[in-house]
Design brief:
Distance between the termini: 11 Å
Number of strands: 0
Shape: elongated
Structural class: mainly alpha
Helix content: over 70%
Order of helices and strands: HH
Oligomer: single chain
Number of helices: 2
Largest sheet: none
């Protein structure tokens, strides 16, 4: 399997940006959900990166 863990980190960055945009527009519920999903993507990225070693 090739090194595809970077995709999870890219998803983390996208959800993080979405969370900050939601904070800017004062949509707190969406921002909380976006940050939660971002943390899941970050955890998955670390998990898959560790598995590839």
């Amino acid at each position: 399997m090739r090194n595809f863990a970077w995709i999870w980190f890219l998803g983390f960055a996208a959800w993080l940006v979405d969370g900050f945009i939601s904070l800017y527009y004062r949509s707190m519920q969406h921002a909380q959900l976006a940050f939660l999903v971002a943390m899941v993507f970050l955890a998955a990225g670390f998990f898959y990166r560790r598995q590839q070693r």
